Amino acid sequence: MGKLERLKALIDDWSRRSGETGARVGCDLFCFRTGKRWGIDANKGFTPASNQKLWTTLVALDELGPDYRWRTRFAAGSGCLYIRGGGDPSFDESCALRVACELKERGLTRLDEVRLDDGLSSGHPWGKGWMWDDLAHGYGAPIHALIMERNRVTFHFDPVSEPPKIVRVSPRFCQGAAQTMLNWTEKPEAEVEIFRIGAEQFEIKGEISRREPELEAAVAQGPEFFAEVMIGALREKGVIVSEGIRVIRGPFSERADIRMDRVSPTLAEVLHQVNKESDNLTAEVLLRTIGMARRGTLSEEEGLLRVMDWFRKAGLQAPAVIADGSGLSGYNQATPEALLNILIWAYRNDPLFPVWLDSLPRYGRDGTLKNRTAVLPQRVEVAAKTGSLAGVRNLSGYFLNNEGEPLLSFSFLINGLLEEENGEKLQDQFLQLAVTKWVN
């Protein structure tokens, strides 16, 4: 039986056994040793979901360089703290505590006012085509130049309580609270609804997994959330915070007595947030940062134009529709062929390929593929990007040898699922077929 026949038989058998007769499956594969390529419906359009992050991260790496860093600026004087955001997607409570300690050491003793400069951000704080009921979930957090803890509140639950009970909220200095109506579930995909009823107050309904007893909710305004956590950090470090402290939007002061900057980790490090963890906010920051060179602000529109320019310069046909940087938008459309083309091109042509490859999840080891359990030979590793939305399960990446060199590249897209778990089962079966029959 030939490659295509085996592949078709696998999909047909899965469709019959799972009851997913309405699901669409498209795939494209390429063997680097033989140069042979084969697939099914490889030129048909699919919703790529987070496979969108493959080109977002590759273009960002090429356009910005692996050593690129974001900068957050602080200034203080006469009881006022000025903060200018630079789009750093990694800034968190631990960073706030370090900055607070340094500000205190440099002479900030009292705080009466915080002025927030989010002027580097332009356009809407969400991606084009994001659905309204995604915007209170952690994966739909708003994009600003000032970002704290990825603009989300995390609720931690006691895994032995009945029903699930919140035992901790992070970051510590936020005012996050939630009304919950939850049950425990053993299903790998917990179904939960999150509604924002205040800036950091939520209503949470549905199910939560005991294996991952925490839920993330998106705040309403990133800059004000940043200020809230920063004020808490300063108070903990001994700065006197006035009872009627004001938090307002305003320009950054270049003349304040105390000035300091905090720079982010390198882009090469931040890529792990995007690909391994599949963080949407960070992907959108990358897209907008790509556009900053021409527009001067974090611009989604300009970022999309520069991504299209990159495809033209690389001699690659761009996907049919690129609406955002993360893949959360339902407007995006791509083919398995387009995804495979960029995987092949990256390995053959991009000098930064090792950095990009290192950011992809490893099957059964880390990131969004950590809990996958299909048995693969010890001599072979799978590095691939997942893509998940309602009814969508996608996987695109590489089979690697012991030296980390690609043997086979693939894009395997499944849309229209009734049960997303069925899609992951087919992915596992596909990987086992590929590794036993086509990987040499």
Automatic annotation (TrEMBL):
Give the source's domain of life in one word: Bacteria
Q: Where is the signal peptide?
A: none
UniProt keywords, alphabetically: Hydrolase
Q: Does the keyword Hydrolase apply?
A: yes
Q: Pfam families from the xrefs?
A: Peptidase_S13
Protein family per UniProt: Belongs to the peptidase S13 family.
Q: Which NCBIfam families match?
A: PBP4 (TIGR00666)
Q: What is this protein called?
A: Peptidase S13
Q: Which species does this protein come from?
A: Kroppenstedtia guangzhouensis
Q: What would be the name of the gene that encodes this protein?
A: dacB
